[in-house]
Amino acid sequence: MTTTAPFAFDSDTASTRVGDHTYELELTDRWNTPAGTANGGYLLAVCVRALRGEVPQPDLLSVSAHYLRPGTPGPARVETETARIGRRTGTGAATLLREGKEIIRVLATFTDLAAAEGQTIELGVAPELPAPEECVDPVTGRGKVAQTGIGERVEFRMPQLRGFWGGELGRAERWEFWMRFTDGRDADPIALAALVDAAPPVIFDHGVRASSTVELTAHIRRRPAPGWLAARVSTRHLVNGFHEEDFELWDSTGALVAQSRQLAIVP
Amino acid sequence: MTTTAPFAFDSDTASTRVGDHTYELELTDRWNTPAGTANGGYLLAVCVRALRGEVPQPDLLSVSAHYLRPGTPGPARVETETARIGRRTGTGAATLLREGKEIIRVLATFTDLAAAEGQTIELGVAPELPAPEECVDPVTGRGKVAQTGIGERVEFRMPQLRGFWGGELGRAERWEFWMRFTDGRDADPIALAALVDAAPPVIFDHGVRASSTVELTAHIRRRPAPGWLAARVSTRHLVNGFHEEDFELWDSTGALVAQSRQLAIVP
Known about the structure:
2 copies of one chain form a homodimer. Chain A is mainly β. Chain A has helices spanning 8-13, 40-52, 150-153, 189-195, and strands at 16-19, 22-27, 59-67, 74-85, 89-98, 101-111, 121-122, 154-157, 174-181, 212-220, 229-234, 237-239, 242-250, 256-265. In chain A, strands 1, 2, 3, 4, 5, 6, 8, 9, 10, 11, 12, 13 and 14 form a 13-stranded antiparallel β-sheet that branches. The radius of gyration of chain A is 18 Å and the shape is globular.
């Protein structure tokens, strides 16, 4: 399922440089969550993409975002600042504004992942999932998952439609499933940092129906191979309305490509 | 083992306001790591403490730090900026500079943890450790752990001195142990965010002997009860020289109080 460019992620995260460290764009509603506001991973990707043009290193390595206000469609501005450009890594800051008000603040560090040299020790294991073709699409399957906004941009394949995905309380601590952009765009480091926020939170399996990100950090561990990504998401602690969500993405070769954690609040 | 104030953590993280959003302090060598540079948790705490005075919410909730250059002892400056002050949370940015050069960049969000209301669901479990009195002090025990700088500021109690702590290769994915400030200062939210970076990295159990933080994010989940903290630290992926380190701190009542992850590079 491949379409010709421009893919939605590329056209919707692009901004135009209008001055030193200043960019403008139109935030679209095509990445809205069912709550009616822009997905946090989309907003993060807008910031990181503007910043990437200001550092020599090609790959996002680590990004931290603090979410200040909900993102709504319309004209927006990104203001960036480079903090340090080193030989191996480059770091900068970005702020996304709507009507003069800050929506998110981001710090991001870039590197050349292809030039990373050093020891590799793997103690983690990839999700054990049937092939995507043998899994169920929760949208066309018997699940009741909204298919507007980000629900149209990202698709999933689950081994079974249990718990939340089947319209019930599953009380799971962890979900594992496949995901990718619906229009066939393969993931790159910035896309990985958006995709870790693109699935319904696993805390929904406990009856929670809304969750807003306070902070999200994603680390990119490798450039991903093309194809489906295997996701593992878990939440262990909902404490007085705040919960963490850990997210791993593994590429089609079975290699870990991204790790993230977010702290979110149940309104 | 309690001394009278001032405790080292309080005196060494204090800075003096010298202008709008500008603070000065003397970075000490009392929190140096065996590598001879300032511990990253100490540097983070300096920034967060300056910033906390500028927001109405009393408790650190979430902090993200990108490490740009090693910290060395001497005169330093903190520059802060408030991003958004809301009813429930307040967010700001801070930069620590030495001789005009940026050492770390921080984003931090504060809240009133005592006023947090909402559902609690706990699926995680605290480390199962013998009481601290039944554990071994790796400094006075048969371990060979340096006791200068941060090694004097923080103490540990381990069930056994195995692997790295016994001078051998343990190849563990996870360590669990007790920790606290040596001078008897109890932890508060900012101290928790420093303590998650105060232990030797578990990747040392694989023969690695140095590791520099690229990014560290800590989430404070509860105000901690006084006393020892139970720590759980794990690293699953060392990829081309980069590794994550996950850290949990549980207070003396068995409640999760902090979660952190850092991305670090093996030089």
